[in-house]
Amino acid sequence: MVPSESPPRFRDDLSTIYDFMDEILIRCPRCEALARVVVHPRRGVLSPFQARRLVCAECGHTRDKDSGIYAMPSADAAHMYDPYFSLPLWLQASTRHGLLWAYNLSHLALIRRFVAAELREDAWTEEGIRMTLVSRLPAWITTAGNRDEVLRMIARLESTVGGA
Ligand SMILES: [Zn+2]
């Protein structure tokens, strides 16, 4: 007898969206290839307010934003944009339920782990729990009935990044 495997379990690590803003995958405004918005290499401490740089490895396009002031997109927007340059996110897919999007692969992987888990544990029950990233995912993403469809979409989005 092989011992039965325990069901996939997810414990909320209290990540928030701000933990995934150091590197944002976008569509290059010049060549349409995968580009990145990263923390500006020469300025200050890590924070959402730090200056940013857009870098495209494909065409060499760069763009700086001295102020790290950002605008968070609306949760029910038809398309998602990065909060610094307002360029379209690379990792986004429309579905009949709504928009699935992520800033980067770590963000997408967190959503995947949450969706795949059959047991979801809240790490704590203080009021702050509602601010964590997974606690704020739209209901259609976390509904068990949509699990297979959502996981397929996540795999498809991951495959568009390749070895980058
Ligand atoms: Zn480019």
Question: What would you note in describing this structure?
Answer:
With 164 residues, this protein is of the alpha+beta class. Helices cover 18% and strands 20% of the residues. The chain is built from 3 helices and 8 strands; from the N terminus they run βββββββαβαα. It has a 4-stranded antiparallel β-sheet, with no helix packed on it. Strands 1-8 form a two-stranded parallel ribbon. Strands 6-7 form a two-stranded antiparallel ribbon. A hairpin with a 6-residue loop joins β2 and β3 (34-39). α1 (105-116) runs antiparallel to α3. The longest helix has 13 residues, at 147-159. The N and C termini lie far apart (42 Å). The mean pLDDT is 85. Bound molecules: zinc ion. Zinc ion (ZN) binds at residues 28, 30-31, 33, 35, 56, 58-59, 61.
Widest sheet: strand order? 2-3-4-5
State the helix count.
3
- Approximately how much beta-strand content do the residues carry? 15-25%
The first-to-last residue Cα distance is 42 Å
Mean pLDDT level: 85
Q: Which molecules other than protein and nucleic acid are bound?
A: zinc ion
**How many distinct folded domains?**
1
The 3D shape can be described as globular
The largest pleated sheet is described as: 4 strands, antiparallel
Name the structural class. Answer: alpha+beta
Helix content: 10-25%
Q: In total, how many beta strands?
A: 8
Low-confidence stretches: none
Series of H and E elements: EEEEEEEHEHH
Radius of gyration from the alpha-carbon trace, in angstroms: 17 Å
